[in-house]
Every structure is written in structure tokens, then in C-alpha cells.
Amino acid sequence: MQSVALEFARIGFLNMLAFRLRYYTGVITYFINVTVYYFIWRAIYQVDPGFAGFSFAQMTTYVAVGWIIRSMYFNNIDSEMAEDILEGKITMVMIKPVSVQWSYISRALGESAFRLCLLTTPTALLLGLIFPVLAPASAAHFAAFLAAVAGSVLLVAALNFAVGCCAVRLTSILGLLRAKFWAQDLLSGVLVPVTLFPAPLRLVSRWLPFEHIGFTPMAIYLGRISWRQTAEALALEAFWIVALLAFGAWFWRAMSRRIMVHGG
Amino acid sequence: MPGHVEVQELVKHFRTFERREGLWGALQNLVVREYKTVAAVDRISFEIRPGEMVGYIGPNGAGKSTTIKMLTGILVPTAGRVRSNGFEPFRERSRYARTIGAVFGQRTQLWWDIAVVESFRLLKKIYAVSDADYAARMREFNEVLEIERYLHTPVRKLSLGERMRCDMAAALLHNPPLLFLDEPTIGLDIVAKENIRAFLKRVNREYGTTVLLTTHDLSDIEELCPRLMIIDHGRLLFDGGLAELKRQLWRDTTVKFDLKDREQAQRFEQLEIPGIRREKLGDLTYLLSFGRDDRPTADVIRQVVNAVEVLDIAIEEQSIEEVVKRIYLGGMSPEAPPCNP
């Protein structure tokens, strides 16, 4: 089973390599995003150098590293799944003797492995050269940060699978995918650190899995939370991964009974 | 038992949402929806024994694909029972999938953007095919399907015929005892069709693979399937051999006579043979039709030849297409038994 997952991951990897343009535009997109946020924050920090308890250097690092890890954990399996279900290609997944959930999730992991090598690393080098990015708070913080990022990858994959399942009941899932896309970027703290959210939104985000995708690794990287809080955050992240995987498995079982594939 | 399929009173209902018309209707749809239930498959029962090759035909929308999708574990039946290869397909999908092969003519199970051989590698892993078996299977596939030259091409660059050969190989890589084919020859040219048919015959002969295939090309059935099942509106209309189908539906024999000259034609028109319909095709060409069971064809011919000078005689075969067209258009006539028990 393990080696099958590896092969699926390999396919995910190869699929990403199939189109050169998609790859280059990927690198450029991340560079543009970081540049835009860099200048926005610079304008803010020129007015208020101590904004939100972050120094400008910390905020720059937050933005740059936030986007760098986003370039790794991000995947499209929700929209791929939706397409497979709406176009009936899901039949081709279902005739194979593997769990549907694991085949999509391993594909997502393969995509992340690809992104790490060919997208995240070059983007990190490029951004590190251009922007004043701080080093991690300590080697230990960096190790905990890497663990949190590995968790982000799993978390996003588990979440996207569960969202993709909704395509069974919806004839048009684009709206839902868009909403999820923006909710994820906002609530994960990649656009704005979650600690800057207004109190009600912060209350909501605390009970949702999203902030563990982006904010938790970043807070650890910058050393902004204590070791105790770090352990709690990592445990909570692990809980969300298990919960979302379990939910996805259950949700797919329920949804697959309602699949309609007409013609062909 | 491997290669054995048993279907009892199988039913699949689809619930579709009925859209109301007009602006007011569209607004109503936002609040309350009306659903309509359609029976795509309606109480179908049959059994397929190991090693059989069975054709499953019916007009578009008859329920063929839906049946196949229930048999492959993709769709959950609304009611009824399927036992296939000793499994209950939907409930035990993952384990069951290991024991079957499936090809859907309008889709590919290969990964679209990557070389064919990469897909094969993945399938080899998924089905845990050993290196030795894999090499042997590939050699064998190559003999008939000649897939070796496409192995390093991405699937999206293959022609339909090339892709279908690769899909066929992919479905059989793990040598399953049971193979489902949903329109495997759709859109293929005659050479590719024959290639696929030859391959299926060989697999069935050498490994005793059970095959159930749907098609719109009746020559697939004539060449491959000693048994066929006809479905329409979700009901099984016929289950039996091709010859039996013809016997049941082909109730008239038609004989064409070319006569020597006008004088003979006049004599022919005065000829009296009871229970015969006469049709004039040309100046000297006539058709005689009569109930196939009423009298032997030889009797009729003898009577005509004894009375009139005839140049040429042709007994018209009714083609399988015509037989099937009659079923699709009018259903089986009441006197023909609808289906073998």
C-alpha cells in the first residue's frame, strides 16, 4: 500500500512537470504576491514602526515565509476531484483497487514534493536574496516549523478531499471552491496574521482548522509563541489532520452512494 | 467463484431535479424543488458463467452503462442483488476491483498527460503484478495490440485506436478472470476494431476470461459473443443466442425471383400459392414472402420453378441489424417469449 501511495505521488509529480509554462508562471506568481505585500506592509510600517507588535523585519519575514510555505502545501485536488466527478472521470478512479481518498491524497502529497523541489526552493532563494528575510528563531524552532509545515501539507490535502466530495451533490461547485480558496488564504493567516483579526473573526478562526495551515508554522518560525503553546498548536494541528481525514473518509462513503454518472 | 456473475432483480433509480419554466418557476426552484425518479435499470436478472462472452446491447439510454457501472462497483444499486467474482461490488469495491478489468470506451483509465508506460508502472504497483508476470504480459499484449511503439507517448497525443489498445492492455495487466467492456469499439476504424476483437478472442480462449461487453456495433456481437442480452427502458428484453434471436424474430422468409421474360412474368402473376405475399420489384423481378414455419422454402421454390422459367433465385437473409432495429423500434412482439428464464 505504501509503495502504491508512492507511485501515485510520482504521478502527481510527473503531472506537474508536464507543462513548462504552468511551472514558470507559478514561480513568478509567488514572487509578485510577496512583492505586493512587502510594499503594502512597508507603507504601514513607515507610519507605525511598532504595528501589531511585529517589527517591519518580522512582518517581511512573515509574509515571505508564509508565501514560501504556501507554495508547498497548496494543491488543486479539490478542483481536480470536482472535475473528475462532474465529468464522470471518477469511474476511472473507482475501478481501481485503492481507496479513493488515499489516491487523491497521495497525489496531493506528490504534488507537494514536486512543489518543494521545483517551486518552493527556488522561490525561497529568490525571495531570500531580494527581501530582508530573518532566519528562524533557533534551530529547534526551525525543526518544529518543518514539522508544522509537513502538517500543513496533510491538512490541506485532507481538507481539499472533503471539499471535493461536495461535487457529488452540486452541479456547479466553482463557487464553493472559490469561497474555500479565499477562506483558506484569509483564515490561514497568509494575507494578514490571525492575531490582527477583529475579535469575533479571531474567535471563529480559533475553532477552525485553517490557522494551522499558515499561522501556526509562521508563529513557530518567528519564535512568537512559547514552547508550551508550540506543543499545543502542533497537537491541535495533528488533531485536525486526523479529524479531517476521518471526516473525508466518512463523507466520501456517504457521497459515493449518490454518484450519478450518465452516459459513457 | 471467479468469472461468475449473478444478478437478481437489479434496480437503479436516478432522482433528477425538474426545472420549472419561466421567471416565476426559476424563483420557485430556489425554494422548493420537484424531483422526478427515473428507473434506469428496472428489475434485471441474469447469470453469466465463467468463460462466457456475452454481448449487452440496447439503444442509447437503455440502461446498459448503468448496469455495467453497478457491476463494476461504481454505482450503488437501488434494489436487488449482484454477486460477482464472489463479491458484492459496491460494498466491497476496493477488494473486488482487484479481481476485475474494465474498459470504458469513452474514457481512459490512463493518466492523460504522462507517458503510457508510467501509467502501466502505476497499475503494476496497484495490482501487485510481479516483474516476471509484467514482462510476460507486455510481450503478449505487444504481439496482438502492438503497443510497444506508443509506450513513451503521453496519452493525450495518441489516436483513439492507439489509446484503446493501451486501455485494453491496462485493464488486463493483472489478468483478471472477469472483464467488463463498455463500448470498447466506439469510434474505431475497421482495422483497430478487428485488432481489439482478435485480442479479446485470444484472452478469452487462453485464460478463460469472462467478458461482458456493451456495443452499438452488432458485428462485435456476431464475431465475439455466442450469447447476447438486449435491454431497453431498463428491462431485459432478450437473453439468448444470436441464432435464437433470429429464429424468434425472423418469422418471414423472402425469396427473390428473376424471370426470363414478360411472358413468364405474366404466368408468374397468375400462379396461385396460398399464404404467400407477392411484391413486384422490377419488370421481371419479384419477391415472395411467406411464414417461415408455414412451409419449407424448397417447396415454394419448387412450385415456382415447375410453373415458370426462372433465371435466378436468391433467398434474402435478414440481417442482425434489421432484427435488432425491429426490437428497438417496436419491442419484442407478444408472441415471442420475452426472455429465457
Notes on the protein architecture:
The complex is a heterodimer of chains A (about 260) and B (about 350). Chain A is mainly α and about 260 residues long. Chain A has one domain (about 1-255). Helices cover about 75% and strands about 0% of the residues of chain A. Chain A has helices spanning about 1-15, 20-45, 55-75, 75-85, 90-95, 100-130, 140-165, 175-185, 200-205, 210-220, 225-255. In chain A, helix 4 packs parallel to helix 7. The longest helix of chain A is centred in the middle third of the chain and has 31 residues, at about 100-130. The model of chain A has no long low-confidence stretch (mean pLDDT about 90). In chain B, about 35% of the residues lie in helices and about 30% in strands. In chain B, strands 5-6-7-3-8-9 form a 6-stranded mixed sheet, sandwiched between helices. Chain B has a 4-stranded antiparallel sheet with strand order 11-12-10-13. Chain B folds into 2 domains: about 5-245, Rossmann fold, CATH 3.40.50.300; about 250-315, Alpha-Beta Plaits. Chain B is of the alpha/beta class and about 350 residues long. Mean pLDDT of chain B is about 85; it is low at about 335-340. At the A-B interface, helix 1 and helix 5 of A face helix 3, strand 5 and helix 4 of B.
Q: Count helical runs of chain A.
A: 11
**Shape field of chain A:** globular
How would you write the strand order of the largest sheet of chain B? 5-6-7-3-8-9
How many strands of chain B? 13
N-to-C SSE string of chain A, H for helix and E for strand: HHHHHHHHHHH
Low-confidence stretches of chain A: none
Helix content of chain B: 25-40%
Main sheet: strands, sense, barrel of chain B: 6 strands, mixed
Largest sheet entry of chain A: none
How far apart, in Å, are the first and last alpha carbons of chain B? Answer: 22 Å
> Unreliable segments of chain B (pLDDT under 50, ≥5 consecutive)?
333-341
Number of domains of chain B: 2
Secondary-structure content class of chain B: alpha/beta
In the CATH hierarchy, the third-tier topology of the largest domain in chain B is known as: Rossmann fold
